[in-house]
Structures are given as C-alpha cells and as structure tokens.
Amino acid sequence: MTNKLWTLDFAERLTRDGVHVIIDEWDAEEGQDKFHFMEQMVNNPEVNHVLLICNNDYATKANKKKGGVGIESQIVSSEIYNNVDQNKFIPIVREYLDNKACLPTFVSSRFYIDLSDGEHFEENYEQLIRRIFGKPKHKRPPIGETPSYIKEEEPTFLRTAHKYRPLKEALINGKSNTNGLLLDYFDLFNQTLEDFLISRDIDPNNPPIDEIIISKFEQLKSLRDEFIEIMLAYVKYSEIDNEWLFKMLESAYNSVNYKISDSYYDYNNHLQLFLNELFLYLSAILLKYEKYESLSYILRNKYGIEQEYRELVFEPYCWNFNKHNKLLDEHRNQRLKLNRVSVSTDLIKERSSNQNIKFEEIHDADILLHYSGLLMHNESWFPRLSIYGNGSGRPKLIQRLKSKRIFEKVKPILGVNSKEELFEKIDSLDKNLYNGYFRFNFRFSGIFNAFKKDEICTLE
Fold first, then answer.
1. What is the pLDDT of residues 112-148, one digit of tens each?
2. What is the CA 383 to chain-centroid distance, rounded?
3. What domains sit in the chain, N to C, each tagged with a CATH number?
4. How far apart are CA 460 and CA 452, in angstroms?
5. What long-range pairs does 78-84 form, CB within 8 A, spacing at least 24?
6. What Rg value do the Cα atoms of the chain yield, rounded?
7. Which pTM was predicted?
C-alpha cells in the first residue's frame, strides 16, 4: 500500500477513535495551495499535533529536498527548529531499512511511534492515542516522604546498610540465595542493636539520661525502616517460615537482653521500646496480608530468654516485647512536667511515617495483641497506642468476625478452634481485672465488650 493510501486509512481509524483529523483530502479546498495549507496546519495553535508518516521513500525525498515532500519537510523542519512546541510533531514510522527506522534527518533524533510491525501495531497505536489525548499509560507516582536518613543532620551509619538492598531485591525477585541473605542480614541486625547500647559508666544527669535515650531511639529509625521494608517483601513474596520468624525475634531480643537492666535508670530503655515497635509493625504486616497462621505462631509460642549464666526462661511475647518504659513515661514526664499519658507511645506515633503500614494498622494490631495475650496466655499485652483511639476502640478485624468465613481465618490468632471455645476462654478470665473498658486515657474496648456472642459468626 502506498504511503498516501495508508495515510488515508490511518486517518479514518483515528477519526473513529475520536480524533479530529485534518488532512488535505478532506479539508483542502480546490484551488488552495497545498503548501500554504501545510503552513497553516503547522502554525495553527488549535492544531495540537502534526503526524509525520515516514517510510523510506518519504525520508529519501525529504533529505534530498525533492519535490513536494522536500518543500513540506522544509516547512516542518523550520518550525521544529524555531518556534513550535517540540511535542507538536510526532513521527510515525511505517518502514525500517537495515534495521534502522526510516526517518528524515530533521526528526531522526526524536522519539517516534513505530507502526511498522503488525505484531506490535495495536500496542503502539494505543500509545499514540494516549499521547494525542494526554492520557499516558504510565503516570508519575506521587512524591513520597523523604527517607529518614536524608533528613538526619548527622546520618546514622548502619552495619546492615550494604546488605539491605540485595536482600530486598532477592526477596522480590524470588532468587535462590534469599535464605542465606536473610541469615546474613539479621546476624548484622543483632550486632547493630548492640552498637546502640549505652555505657553504664556515663553520668545519668549530665546530660539527662532521658535525652540520650530519645536521641538513640531516633537514630534507630533507619534500622526500623529497613526492618519494615524487609518484612513487607518477605511476607508478600516468600513462603513464610514460621519457625525462622519466631527465632529471628527471639534472637533480636537476646542480643541485647543481658545489657537491659530492670533498675529505674535503665540506660537502654530505647532498645526495649525499639523491640516493642518492631513487634507492632511485624504484627501489623502479618495482619495486613492475612498471614494469621504465621502471626499465631509467634504469639502462642514462648520465647527462650537468656538470663545470667545463659539460663533460659521461657516467656510469652507479652512479657518481653511490651515492657513499661519507666525512664521515659515516668522520669522524663516528671522531669519536664510534660503531663503526657505515655511519652514512649508519643514517640512511636510521631515517627509512624511509613507509607505502606499506617499508624491505624499498628494501632489495631496493638489492641489485637492485647486480646491474643489474654486468650492464649492469660497475660495482658497493654495496648498503649489506644490513647490515640476513638469510638468503641474495637479493631475492624474484630467487627468483621460477624462473618463465619472471616472467623475461620482469624481464629488462630485468638488461640481457639471454635466460637464456643472463644467464649469459654473469655468467661474464664478474671472479670475484676479485665472488666469492660480500661479506665482513664486508654480508649479501647476490653475483651468482655469487644467480643459479642450475638454477633460473631452470624453471617455466612
């Protein structure tokens, strides 16, 4: 098919797809100079795009300035080089010669639409239509928040930094060396935690120890962000090894446990708070992606915590990852007369900037961890993030237990096999300790009010 006939058919298809096409066969009047017609189209501000239909014959004539094509090319090239919007002209390639697109020299360096190949014609035609209507297939994503390590006046250099990106890439792409990279990364992760220990030889009053604790906790934010991104990639793209997940948490706690004191001046309160934060985010990630069996595994099994002389004490998650932070919540609160319900909780809220896991998700995870602790271990994980709650304080997941289908999926994290067993466990709890809503500033529904017999499993 000649270039002229092809162009006419092409113009008809564009018209059927909603494009107002101006072409000399339809729009030039008898007696009108065709080159003047071309100049009008090039200079008319109401003409948004000029399509240059290029094959070998057109390119050769344009380069040699031969005949009508030569004059046309001079008009177009003059406008391209001088004063017309660079996006107005779109070369359409119909032919290749020696694996090279047949384009006139004056547009040879420009991006073009390739309509020479029948196999890819429709895909590239769609690209052209999107370009004409200003509806690109791929849009620029919204600009996110600047990474925390960029904002830091004194950047925190982590041992894990060179391991983080290869591991994340391996997880996403399902590479065969992922398990080895995971082990290497978390070995360094635990060593990095030790880097943030505070010596007991310091004077706790100059500067005030709580100021040092706050500073150390902020420096750990980069490590927390790495942990979140690694866990997101692991949960989304890998088959979860529940035992490995459990041991990873156990190992992280034991890496600093010896150095954490129970004295009032606990110089390493920031590490307790950091481990609490990691457990919250991991729980929220597992909930988000409905990995209830995996979450149940790390909740129901007891952690072997090394004591002096490497003696092991086995304790539930509630004891180790949810400790009261006396130095911040009491000492700092009193010293600065802050009158805050929980300074440590405020810190977690203030830095809940991850775009993939929102504060609301770790807030709901916090309350669910409270319910699970009571049902699995008769121990209370205190949901401190609930000071930022509202309404009844019932997580959405608990409200969704109306559905039998949802209940069957979620029951592992409640440590039960049936609705009947759930309420047997709830009824066996000490109502004097756990009755109704917690008082004061913690706004969440106590376990006796959160689970309603006349509501759960009432929908198919």
1. 999 988 788 999 999 999 999 988 887 777 776 665 5
2. 25
3. 3-133 (3.40.50.10140), 155-450 (no CATH)
4. 17
5. 79/42, 79/43, 80/106, 80/107, 81/106, 84/42, 84/43
6. 33
7. 0.68
The whole-angstrom separation of Cα 181 and Cα 230 is 11
Q: Helix/strand/coil (H, E, C) string of 240-255?
A: CCHHHHHHHHHHHHHH
Question: Coil, helix or strand for 138?
Answer: coil
Report the amino acid identity of residue 222: S
What contacts 225, CB < 8 A, 6 or more positions away? Answer: 147, 148, 354
Instruction: In whole angstroms, give the CA distance from residue 366 to residue 388.
Output: 11
Q: Inform me whether the pLDDT recorded for 236 exceeds 60.
A: yes
Give the integer Cα–Cα distance in Å for 344 and 321.
Answer: 13
Q: Quick one: tokens of 106? A: 């004056």
Whole-angstrom Cα distance, residue 45 to residue 55? 27
Distance CA 253, CA 334 (A): 29
